Amino acid sequence: MSFLPYQFSEHFAQQLDAQDPLASFRSRFHFPKVNGKAAIYFCGNSLGIQPKSVKDHLERELNNWADLAVDGHFHGEDAWYHVRKKSKPALAEIVGAHEHEVVAMNHLSVNLHLLMVSFYRPTKERYKIIVEAGAFPSDQYMLESQIKFHGLDPADALVELTPRPGEHTLRTEDILTEIKKQGDKLAMVNMAGLQYYTGQLFDMQAITAAAHEVGAVAGFDLAHAAGNAVLKLHDWDVDFATWCSYKYLNSGPGNISGIFVHERYAERPDLPRFAGWWGHDEDERFKMEKGFVPMFGADGWQLANNNVLALAAHQASLDIFQEAGMENLRAKSEKLTGYLEFLIREISGESGVLEIITPKNPAERGCQLSLLIHRGGKAVFDEFYKHGVVGDWRNPNVIRLAPTPLYNSFMDVFRFAQILEQSLEKFA
Ligand SMILES: *Cc1c(COP(=O)(O)O)cnc(C)c1O
To answer: Which residues of this UniProt protein bind pyridoxal 5'-phosphate (predicted)?
Structure first.
């Protein structure tokens, strides 16, 4: 890489942008404004910004609805009856799956519950679930309520992994050791793929292999991994996964989720599941007869007919991902996040105000850096915002910054660094 080592200079940042093959994607997005100026938007981990093409995609479906109404279900190329198929090629690429292993549906928390119905089948002997401590609250509530639903006690059934004393993130070896230790008692590992708070990317392949070794299944919540890390769910042999589309996948607030179910479960009508008509064999669906016959693959977990407007916005963004390519995005992401890390370390130095808790190894992180604020607290974050930086604050004292390779530039990172330097003068 010709431009390394990094330099703290505007000229250098401009050079990186000039060499960036993905630089033009930035112009395809609407940037929000802070104080009348386009923000330095580092909050794609929470809500991705709007692709300009969303409007056209939505308008097309609004027109179809206006012009065709009920006939839209079966009319023409865009027939809504088959709309779920459109997003499959991109979703398969993004999570590393076969098309029949993925489908867009529902919301993330809903999908977690639905997948638990099939994959969490506790017995007297084998009932434990391993999760990282401090998991996203929805995941905590989901796991707790699922365990109670089976008449079990979360205090006993849930094994929460905490980092070693003095450390902020988990060591893979410790995760694998715990899996082995739980052994015959372990029903499932159900972790984030990329931890929302620390930004740690877990070794899903190793975790899955270890879970299988002891006879357990492995499922991942990919809310912060989808569209961020390169994923190979099929090859890693992951049993199931789900994600949302409004974070790195830029598909709009609260938009549709997606699921992955490994193809070894593609034809398992015996697997318990909560069924609905949209998971039923689509050639037979309109016979409206008794007797649920699940569709092949992930489609067999669908319940309800598709939200066409949601999928239209989703598709606008997925088209962009396919054009950019996950491997290209990842290559830029490592440089971009590396540059942010370099500049933060240059500026905060020994001041002790900031501490990056996200792993230093690029293989163990995505594009997010989580900073512990040791002095100044939320005032530091507010100072960033005053100068146009949109990041994300988590209690008690973490700022999360996510330079996303699709629409952030090296100059964004540089400009942030200047703001950081000014802000720290107030708090150092
Ligand atoms: C964002 C996020 C969610 C949100 O769930 P929704 O059902 O989309 O509201 C859940 N889990 C994790 C890990 C998240 O990061």
So the answer is: 108-109, 136-139, 221, 224, 246, 277, 305
